[in-house]
Structure formats: C-alpha cells, structure tokens
Amino acid sequence: xxxxxxxxxxxxxxxxxxxxxxxxxxxxxxxxxxxxxxxxxxxxxxxxxxxxxxxxxxxxxxxxxxxxxxxxxxxxxxxxxxxxxxxxxxxxxxxxxxxxxxxxxxxxxxxxxxxxxxxxxxxxxxxxxxxxxxxxxxxxxxxxxxxxxxxxxxxxxxxxxxxxxxxxxxxx
Length: 172
Prior knowledge:
The chain has one domain: 3-Layer(aba) Sandwich (Rossmann fold). The protein contains 5 helices and 9 strands, in the order βαβαβββαββαββα. It has helices at 18-31, 54-62, 86-93, 125-128, 157-170, and strands at residues 6-12, 36-41, 66-71, 74-75, 79-80, 100-104, 113-117, 132-137, 151-153. Strands 5-4-3-2-6-1-7-8-9 form a 9-stranded mixed sheet, covered by helices on one side. Helix 1 packs parallel to helix 2. The radius of gyration is 15 Å and the shape is globular. It starts with 5 loop residues before the first strand and ends with a helix.
C-alpha cells in the first residue's frame, strides 16, 4: 500500500493540535490538486458516537475525499466487526484513488510520524513512538536543548508545512 500513496501519522496527546494540523495539511494538499483521505483513532475509549464525529467532519470540511474514525471495533464508515486493525482500514482505503492518507493517532503503528509536544510531560512520547520525521512544539514545551529530529514551533506554519509537503511529495 505505501508504494502507491504516502501515509503520514499525526500523533500527540489530547489538545496538542492534531486535528488543526490535519486540517492544514488537507487544505494544502487539496489546493495543489492532490486527493487526501484521513483516518482518526478515537483514543478516548468507547465507540465513536455519531453526534461526536467533529474531528472527522473537520477533515471532510477541509477537503478530505474519504474520512473515517475508529474506536472499540467500530469504524465510522458504518462497517462493524469485532475489532479493527489499522492495516484492515488501509485495505479498505486501497479501493479509493488517493495521493495521501493522513492518520490522526495510532501511536503504536510504524508509519512516518509528526509528533506534537505541548508540555514537558509530552517528552515521553518521543520514546514511545517510532519513525518520527519531525516534531512540532508549543511555546509551553520547554525546548531546553535541540531535539534529534527536525523541530518546528507550532507557530512556524510556513516552515513546517513546506517541510511536510516536501516529505509527502518526495517519497511517492
């Protein structure tokens, strides 16, 4: 699957800016004529309620062609089975003609990741995840020393957006 389309994960703890970053990437890619699909992991536990799909709706409003949210075995494309692995969902997405798939969450998967850091406690995430391509940090994150990954302030939108779009385009 990865040979045909680029997959990028956006990971961070709650309220770190994942959905806002996803919206920006979707808008940028679609403005360049690219087709984007998104998958969100409902990490707060339970089945994602139909009236609580605000993040996937934001993905759609930003221009994503296909969106889904998964939690506790329910994939809100309204397909039910005992549980869902990210690979199963990506298999469904293979039927759609997309240039990029952006994944919000699924910290333990192996796809290239952007990590968002808001507080000092978030630093632990850098040891928990693999395949980090860059870090976006908030002013509330104490950047005492340079990180070993390309790092951008969350407010340097132009810089990190150019970096991420280059990453997305360059490995297709």
